[in-house]
Design goal:
The protein has helices at residues 53-60, 109-112, 154-157, 160-174, 191-202, 214-223, 236-243, 261-266, 289-294, 307-318, 334-342; strands spanning 14-22, 25-32, 41-50, 71-72, 77-84, 96-99, 137-141, 145-147, 182-185, 206-211, 227-230, 249-254, 268-276, 298-301, 325-330, 349-353. With 354 residues, it is an alpha/beta fold. It is globular. The two termini are 39 Å apart. The protein binds zinc ion. Zinc ion binds next to helix 2.
């Protein structure tokens, strides 16, 4: 048989890519498909994208973010291996995977210690600073790709790299939440709020959470939250004080920002820990320094997660700690998903399916 007798390999020359072309303007473009993966890379066929607030920030436009448009969106993904580059072991065609969306160097001290989200030379966050995952095919360094255990679908796996791993990092690496402790989870209906409730309950914590309406209150209860406070009708600081017999909680899980930050601090017991990964209600707040040191509060800023946290998250999913899905939308409705996320009319995660 000569080379000419062999059927030509089927190669897709173009693919779809959801591209941010201007602030609040995303278009589904037909772009060149990637070449075969280079040495050390794998090619992933993208199946699902998880939406997060970082996507909303990127979509709105952020003056301080160094980036250039057009930009392929999507910061959190699951897919399957389409091709494996030279020298890559441990992956086979068809394997389900998720990817780490921070373009770390893999060599600095932080990376070598497994603290990937503190990489000293990170080249950007995919879908925010540099092109992201919302496209049919992508070549990724194999070191940033994590296998998905059997039994977890793409929709759920797409919640591991950002939503689950961020919470895993916040609660266990930073706040060092222990079984039996009491935690206040702000905005318990949000994507990460629902994860925090489930992860804290799974280790036997008492969970107090806040939500913005009674419908969400019922859903948060159903997730296992011990006490749910509608922050629109009750002052959560007072309720937490009552619920904890004036002692306060061990840990406060924050991501709302100025609207709740000082209230969350007030809910802590002496020596309590506040961990925050977001600030959806604004950027700045004031801080009572007397209160900070007299009460011996510990405040952790937390952003992203390590690759280890993604593995831990997938292991939790495999053991039955599944994500709460608010909505599944098709690729063409990515912006509708972002608008829904921005409106806060969500309970759980919004997933865009390919
Ligand atoms: Zn590094």
């Amino acid at each position: 048989m000569t080379l000419l007798d062999q059927p030509a390999p089927v190669v897709a020359h173009t693919m779809r890519a959801l591209t941010l072309v201007a602030d609040r303007k995303i278009e589904l473009l037909e772009v060149a498909a990637p070449p075969p993966p280079a040495a050390g890379e794998v090619q992933i066929a993208i199946k699902a994208i998880g939406l997060n607030h970082i996507d909303v920030w990127g979509w709105r436009g952020m003056a301080f973010a160094k980036r250039k448009l057009p930009l392929v969106v999507g910061a959190e993904t699951a897919g399957e291996i389409r091709a494996v580059g030279a020298g890559v072991g441990g992956f086979g065609v068809g394997d389900p995977v998720v990817a780490y969306g921070g373009l770390t160097d893999g060599t600095c001290k932080a990376c070598r210690e497994g603290r990937d989200n503190l990489c000293e030379n990170v080249a950007g966050i995919m879908g925010f600073h540099v092109d992201g995952f919302a496209r049919d095919l992508i070549n990724m360094p194999a070191r940033l790709v994590i296998p998905v255990p059997a039994g977890i679908g793409f929709r759920d796996a797409a919640c591991a790299p950002v939503a689950f791993a961020t919470v895993q990092h916040m609660l266990f690496d930073n706040a060092k939440l222990e079984p039996g402790e009491t935690i206040l989870v702000q905005a318990g209906g949000s994507g990460i709020g629902t994860v925090a409730i489930k992860m804290a309950k799974a280790i036997g914590c008492t969970v107090i959470t806040t939500v913005g309406d009674d419908d969400k209150a019922a859903k948060a209860k159903a997730l296992g939250a011990d006490h749910v406070i509608n922050y629109r009708t009750e002052r959560f600081e007072g309720v937490v004080r009552k619920l904890t017999a004036k002692k306060g909680v061990d840990v406060a899980f924050e991501h709302v920002g100025p609207d709740t930050f000082n209230g969350s601090l007030l809910c802590l017991k002496r020596g309590g820990r506040l961990v925050t990964c977001g600030s959806t209600s604004g950027q700045s707040t004031t801080l009572n320094l007397f209160q900070l040191y007299l009460q011996q509060y510990r405040i952790f800023g937390s952003f992203g997660a390590s690759i280890r946290n993604i593995r831990e998250s997938l292991d939790k999913m495999a053991a039955g700690l599944t994500p709460v899905i608010d909505t599944e939308v098709p690729l063409a409705d990515f912006e509708r998903g972002l608008a829904r996320l921005e409106s806060r009319q969500v309970f759980g995660k919004i997933i865009v399916m390919f």
